[in-house]
Amino acid sequence: MNKAVLASALGAPSAFGQSQFAFMRGNAFEARVKADGGAELLRLVHEKLDPGAEPPAAGAVPDLTAVGPEGRAARTALALREAGATGGWTLLDHPLLTLDVAGSPAFLEPDAVVVHPDGSWTVVEIKSFPMLDGSADAAKVGAAARQSAVYVLALERVAARLDPAPEVRQTVLLVCPKDFSNLPTGSAVDVRKQRSVTRRQLDRLTRVEDIADALPEGTCFAPDLPAAELTAAVESVPATYAPECLSACELAFHCRARSRARGAVTTLGRSLRAELGSLASVDEVLSAARGTSGDPTDPTVAALRRAAALRAEALGTRTTAPARDPARGAGNCATSHGAAAVNEPQPARRTAGRSGTTCP
Q1: Residue 50: inside a domain, yes or no?
Q2: 25, 168, 205, 303: most buried, per Cβ within 10 A?
Q3: Can you give the pTM of this predicted structure?
Q4: Residue 191 sits in the same domain as residue 285
Q5: How many of the other CB atoms lie within 10 Å of CB of 182?
Q6: Under a CB-based contact definition with an 8 Å cutoff, are residues 91 and 38 in contact?
Q7: Cα(191)–Cα(34) distance, rounded to whole angstroms?
Q8: What confidence tens digit (pLDDT) does each residue in 304-338 have?
Q9: Among 235, 261, 231, 220, CA closest to 10
Q10: Distance separating alpha carbons of residues 320 and 305, to the nearest angstrom
């Protein structure tokens, strides 16, 4: 199922993606890294990950072309098997790997995989963000590490079918532009933690067959269906929207609209949802903050009412929330901010001499 086409048919096309300029810049940098048979890339792998091995004078670059994704994956597995027997350096440019995800095969294409002279395998991830003075943006490095960990898991599936099974290194090579130039530099990134987390997440995924069995009879996701039928089919699959979905899922805009229509608190973020406990909708949160519902002994409700009282005091408006209880305290500061964020829009006029809401 093509989720991008499905999102367009639902009237909520996805708008995220890499810009054309960034795409061209990334391709140009990757081509430079892999030029001359990957000589510079192999040099970086030798320098950062395997300095004790023989320097890569000239590495083999096998042809991985085949018909269809299944053919490319089989050709990649064959090239990995053959490379281990040569005893030299081998560079696999854009190999195709498979990984079982919830009972269905997913095809993965890392930037490169290097086979060392000792037969071990290393994943290489090439990114176009700069590495300044030997370090790069932590968030981007973390995302690259999580992406590489998936490739490591897929390579381990290939290695498990060989006898003897070669070592899949848990340290990958991240290649980025050096400082403000277009010269490549590399950094070793340990992905053992990301690999373990990803493996646990994959093991806990509900299988596609189980999801399909739970759907109503005759459910179809064909994009050419009438809008009402297609929307009903998509709604039959449970989904919980969060802002993080915008950068990862083509159906995020559709799910966000449905989540906002229901007034779900998760629309505002998972961290806020976790702080609000059993209050699952914006209406429930506002009602608890006003004092018209909710258990006053609940710490979350108490913090919401305290935040509402502080806001009303700062704005010079009246509120039905009870006065501050010194024995109970101010409650959680972060939850108080969350209550202010979901409360009614602020009036244009403020009382003279007063500032915005603060946490005591």
Answers
A1: yes
A2: 303
A3: 0.71
A4: no
A5: 13
A6: yes
A7: 23
A8: 999 999 988 888 865 444 444 444 444 444 444 44
A9: 231
A10: 9
